[in-house]
Amino acid sequence: MEQPHGPQQQRPPSSPPVPPAAGGPAAAAADAPHAAPRAPRRLSRRRLLKLGGLVAAAGGLGLYRCGLYDERLLPPGLRVLGRREAAIAAAVIETVLPPEPPPSPERVRTLLAAIDAYLLGLPAEQVEQLRWLLLGVEHGTFWFGARLERFTRLGARGRTDVLTGWQRSRLGLARAGLRGLVALVFLAHYRDAPAFAAIGYGGPLAPGFAGPPASAARYARLLAPPEREPGW
């Protein structure tokens, strides 16, 4: 077989690798000592004091907003309301009831006990809604009354402004919640004799509520004579 004419191209021999020049950058990098690992940064005293101050301020703010409730108005033996919820309800009672004369501490305790007894018969879901409503009144003072303090720390004027904000709110849920809360207070308030005189009510025609002489006489006419009482 004939070979093709013409010069054949030959590959040049591969040149051996050139060693790095002595003193070059690669050699310098290889000969350089490895950097020692950084030691962990320690918390300086100044940083520690700042951090401690921030934690203390946050804890103080939380305690101011959510703790340190006055329990002098709380009756013993509450079964549904917790201490915080009862303290908020006591502040609502003092705000809602007529200011003249202001309700005495004993009167507030009586109403709280009556509200707590009434809540025993409600479903758990409704009681939970009441708890959230009380917390909303307590901590929603900025949105409903432009106040920074919580409800129980406000004076009489501030509390009135907050409840007025709930009453005039554009949120129907807020207005309905306030109506329910006020109805609960009045339900407890008008259940016994101390509240009857303010509305000119002589009391029910029932034993234990004699009322004025005219009411007592009307009730007496409804009673059977002792000798005609049924024997069961």
Biggest sheet: strands, sense, closure?
A: none
Helix residue percentage? 40-55%
Strand content: under 5%
Instruction: Write down the Rg.
Output: 41 Å
Distance between the termini: 141 Å
Number of DSSP strands? Answer: 0
Order of helices and strands: HHHHHHHHH
Structural class determined from secondary elements? mainly alpha
What integer is the average pLDDT?
Answer: 77
State the low-pLDDT regions, or none. Answer: 56-64
Spatial shape:
elongated
Tally of helical runs: 9
Task: Write structural notes for this entry.
This protein is an all-alpha fold and 232 residues long. Among the domains are: 83-195, no CATH class; 202-232, no CATH class. The chain is 51% helix and 0% strand. It is built from 9 helices and no strands. The chain has helices at 25-31, 45-66, 83-96, 105-119, 124-139, 141-145, 156-167, 172-189, 213-222. It is elongated. It starts with 24 loop residues before the first helix and ends in a 10-residue tail after the last helix.
List keywords for this structure.
232 residues; mainly alpha; 9 helices; 0% strand; elongated
